[in-house]
């Protein structure tokens, strides 16, 4: 990577070497705060992808035989180097994707934990023994790495997703080809530098930067890719699922969400309102697990709207390096138009903007909508911005029914003092995750993270990835 120029030029990392795109192509990476040029990155081609897959495939036979203690040491060294380069990672998260400093700190700490947790996976790649009906036969299973893992990560939490998915794949003996979002290539390049410095063998981890819709199919559809893990939109996820189905390539897909929060009449608003704000305004709502639907029992509805609006109106929108700043810029002009269109459509059809709805540069004010009806786009479709709708409900049963009235099924939350209703909700909500008296935005390294329906297939996390990224083989010995 060229570090001399003021505007950095990013290269691919293939087979342990930094290389340009095959045709020398570059694309611009902009700072979403003001759309100024942040970096230029190698614009990958199909041949660049194929080079990376070939490097990963070539490295796999030797890498799969590495000892657990070696992979464990390399991963822990990655964590150490991340600590040494903490300031650089912070700057990248702030300037490349517009993270406020508090979100950058949150993501850095989570990413660090993901890598350390992955180190613990190295010694858990194991099978078991089985009784056999055949006399004198010893029967067992062994668990083996799948081979080449394709990792495709989003812009919104690039360090968390990179740390988790790449580290977990490497921990269990796979090699990796990584295609990051074209809006966050520098973060991934920094991670590749760290992985290389930590001592991982050449070809174990490969990065190709480029435009996802141009080269994504070259990666997910490659005959030598043995597993695909993707985080992104439901539309792209469906496309990848179809490609993987044709090739019979196993995969995990973590996709969009329209996550509901139900607030019952016995809820503690002193706790619920701050959690509500966290659930939708962190990183300006650019989170698949953000809560864009609140269902509030009528005895608390007016007070909740009043308090939520007060908090929303005071959410910080200053310098991204100011700890008081919460609201991030919306990542791209295409996404800004989506947010504007959702708000305008709702207002045109009769919704009330309780607070927000205006823009300061590339940042949308925290926006609360009431009187939202089903014909409004914002009612059922993911906005991916700091916009949420608040609906009154007359009972817990109505709240559960409306919370489940969606094609998505990622995260969910309920606020109540009634333990029976809380657990009834947890058991009956059609989401992959449920938080009782907590925000919909929550993640940890070892939990089964993921959703149902349009929100994806499979789960992420140390245990889930260990199972997904390896396969069992049955072995018998006739004694």
Automatic annotation (TrEMBL):
It holds the Pfam family Aldedh. The keyword Cell membrane does not apply. PROSITE patterns: ALDEHYDE_DEHYDR_CYS, ALDEHYDE_DEHYDR_GLU. It comes from the Bacteria. Keywords: NAD, Oxidoreductase. Belongs to the aldehyde dehydrogenase family. This is Aldehyde dehydrogenase family protein. The active site is at residue 254. The lineage of its organism: Bacteria, Pseudomonadati, Pseudomonadota, Alphaproteobacteria, Hyphomicrobiales. One of its GO terms (molecular function) is oxidoreductase activity, acting on the aldehyde or oxo group of donors, NAD or NADP as acceptor. Gene3D superfamilies: Aldehyde Dehydrogenase, Chain A, domain 1, Aldehyde Dehydrogenase, Chain A, domain 2. The keyword NAD applies. Residues 18-475 form the Aldehyde dehydrogenase domain.
